Amino acid sequence: MRKLKNSELNRLSVDEFKSSQKTNLIVILDNIRSLNNIGSVFRTSDAFLIKKIYLCGITAKPPHKDIHRTALGSTESVSWEYREDTLTLVKELQENNVQVAAIEQAEKAVMLNEFLPKKDTTYALIFGNEVKGVQQSVVSACDYVIEIPQFGTKHSLNISVSAGVVLWDLFAKLRS
């Protein structure tokens, strides 16, 4: 096997990305403190054609060199918006028929491998603070809580890893 060169990857230009058919997924970052995590989520969102990212609370906004370091330009391709209050955003999205899910460990959570998204529905996925997770008031307002099954001793994933796992899984289910 031969590794592919960058020129062989058939990458979309930023303009092509912006006009392409997006996956019915929105990402909400709820008080993310790590600029590298923010950049990584942008890059993952670019990979899976995510409709939009909302940056909420203390979550930093581009342009910033530490976001750029991991985003690698995806802050230019992926649509994003800053909102001060996550809970207000959740209610607004729900009023527009978006199903909102916190990615969290909670009572009555649906395991990611058991969650079956509907292809004609838009989902907003909330990823929370590295220490405190998604705010309880936000979790309580969500339509779903989705949990990533974990089997080791930590039961804790980095937010950028969680985003990668969840976005890939739902992208694959929606595109199948």
Topology record:
Elements lengths: L13 H6 L3 E8 L4 H13 L2 E7 L8 H7 L2 H4 L2 E4 L2 H10 L3 E5 L6 E2 L11 E6 L7 H6 L2 E4 L11 H17 L1
Parallel strand pairs: 1-2, 1-6, 2-3, 4-6, 4-7, 5-7
Helix pairs in contact: 2-3, 2-7
Question: Can you put this structure into words, describing what you see?
Answer:
- The chain has a single domain (12-175), classed as SPOUT methyltransferase, trefoil knot domain (Alpha/beta knot).
- α2 links the parallel β1 (23-30) and β2.
- α2 (35-47) runs parallel beside α7.
- 36% of the residues lie in helices and 20% in strands.
- It has helices at 14-19, 35-47, 65-71, 74-77, 86-95, 136-141, 159-175, and strands at residues 23-30, 50-56, 80-83, 99-103, 110-111, 123-128, 144-147.
- The protein contains 7 helices and 7 strands.
- The chain has 176 residues and is an alpha/beta fold.
- The radius of gyration is 16 Å and the shape is globular.
- The mean pLDDT is 97.
- Strands 3-2-1-6-4-7-5 form a 7-stranded parallel sheet.
Short description:
The chain has 176 residues and is α/β, with parallel strands linked by helices. The chain has helices at residues 14-19, 35-47, 65-71, 74-77, 86-95, 136-141, 159-175, and strands at residues 23-30, 50-56, 80-83, 99-103, 110-111, 123-128, 144-147.
Search tags:
Alpha/beta knot, alpha/beta, globular, 176 residues, 7 helices
